[in-house]
Structure prediction request, 354 residues.
Amino acid sequence: MNKRGKRNVGMIRLGRCVAFLAAAAFLLPFTILLMVADQQYNFTYNSKRIFYQEFVFENGTRDDGLLSREKFLEVGARMDSRREFLRSECSRLGLDGSSQKAYAWEYLINRQYHVIWCNIFKAASTSWMYNFNLMANYSAAFLNRTKEVPLELARKRYARPTVEMIRKAQGDSITFLIVRHPLERLASAYNDKIVHAWPKSFHDKMGRRIIKKYRKASESKPAPMERYPVFEEFVSYVLDETKAKRTLDMHWTPYTSFCTPCKFNFDVILKFETLDEDQRFLIQMSRLQDIVRPEWRNSGKGTNTLHNINHLYSRLSNSQLDGLYNLYRYDFQLFNYTIQNYYDIIHSEGTTYG
Prediction:
């Protein structure tokens, strides 16, 4: 190779080096920002918890319903595990990327007490809507006697936030949500909103439409006698609405759809299964013990959901249960819930429905 050729090769190599260094210099600030943001979040969360521990165990008493120091640390470790599991699953499923949209519609931000909640209907929502109304300076006496819908009262004091408002408020606030097994939540919504719908209400009219479309009779299987949709009719309706890409009722919409938990950092993830301890932990960590109590204010009607689970799901077919898993797949995966025992219910009953 002559000198001119060698010089050209050298220039090409130099150009590649310069391009690589320029790209690295361009990407480095973004990489550092992501690392700092992650470290800052962990620092902020841990600082909140450490500050609380120092405060409450110096000023609290043991007859006030608060968790002991040992139990507080135990539940705190459980919260760490849930947050890490959520973060890992969000990454594995690709739900934390820039292409995924964040939704803020169901969040409530209380700036006075520095708490942020994503309201999931049929997951202790009645109790915590009451608490947020207390924190919005409605009196307990007023809340106990009013006929107004708690959510409508809350929205008079809590404007629908934007994503930017949530992220800005998170800097000095505790962000939380309460989750529940997706199929238990669905059964609870069915029992409350369909079986025990108020006459002439929105859900009563919905039930009548479901019966008209899905109730069928044959010689081998007479039509149900219930005045409301039976569970397999209701599930057929939900799955068909999903297939048609129509908006689902808020009481059975997958909660990952409106809380988008992969797009916000949550300090506390409460679960219905451990709700008593989880609520006490949240109340103590947020220093709300003088404002709210870990009370159960369930407005549901009729049979307890847990006692009703076997009866309801034994009526479904395998294909219906498959459809429900597909609908609530991210709710299952992000919060470490399983569906196998529901298939066991179907098989143990030898269902012929659907």
